[in-house]
Amino acid sequence: MVGAFALGLLQKLLFDRLLIYGAKPDLLLLLTTWIARREGQSVGIMAGFSIGLLMDLMRGTLGLEAFAKTVSGFVAGFFSNPDDFDKVSNFLWATALAAFFGTSAYELVSSALQTPFFKWTLLATLTSLYNLLFGYAFFEGAKRFA
Amino acid sequence: MRQLFDFLVYDFRQYILLAIFCLVSIALLVNRDTPALRVIRGASIELFGAIETPLKAWTRYFGLREENAALLAANVALSAEASRMRAALAENEKLRAMLNCKAQTPRKLLFAHVVDRTFHPERNLFLIDAGSDDGVEVGMAVLTDKGLAGRIALTSPHFAIVQPVINSDFKVSVISEKNRSLGVAHWTGGDIERARLLHVPTSRKLDVGERILTTEFSSFANANIVVGEVESIEFSAQDLFQRVVIRLAVDFGALEHVFVDLEKPNAEQELLRARYKEFQ
Fold this sequence. Notes:
heterodimer; A: Arp2/3 complex 21 kDa subunit ARPC3
């Protein structure tokens, strides 16, 4: 949780500013993906909810990030095969899909399902691709800490 | 029964957890403005605001040179405008006296720093270092020297969250300065320098370059605060409303200081509106 808090501060102070066409790198998504792959889908869902709620509290909103990260944790949990844990490609696939579905969930819930199809799929795809760049660095860094 | 329990807990555990946590998240989202959750949100922005303020402080010293140059230019322009205003004020007072109008009191403005910003393609938010202990209340207008910046969405004792004009949930009733055409200013995402002016019938006249001001009947902002100026107007014969783009007065890309307008619009009017809603 301390790690999540530190990453949350870093996210707010630095990574939130690296917007490209609405997409941004999401350190807490990468953390959720890492936990979900290591501990399994159930823990991934709970970790996603807790991390999202922490981010909601840091931003003064409530519920949106928790919802999106819960979905991301669930999706990333499908990649929790222990044999593949050290494979970077497995982590990047999990990151891309967790980012896509998490962003889609965020956009659709925040706009009460009013966001046009083209707009949210484009944003979700961009967010996925953008997070792949940071995902590789995160994976290598996290492997040394873990 | 035991088999069913095992089946649900072991085979469908993750789906049940997903459903539970998604429902809890949506319940939190829907009820976020209830008094209990407002207290929690207020306490969290107080805590995180206090942590972030010293971390953010160092960034203020970058760009001071440019800011000083801009302030100097603004000072020169304002001095010239002040001279014109003094002459206009004298004439205005003479005319008001002739019409027996009530004198207007100057606004009480509270200076605040923007200590954090939540970046989002549609729902931007700002955190400022002034809160309920300074007299800030939910619904107060937030201004800069250029014009309307937003309104207070949530407060804690020392901090407040501002819902800026560049948030797609923000709308404000406005009027054009010259032609007195009414409309609603609304930002729809994307470009942070431009917003739309909605509900202006094609029959109303509007000029490019005309300033757009808040109206007397805005629920949170006092009248005559600049929102922007008309940049383009489009409509065809079959349209009911004009498609108007306004260039926003405030530069949200470089927003560092704001003023909170501590004078809310007439509270009696708000009470009357609230009571009317109860009848509906």
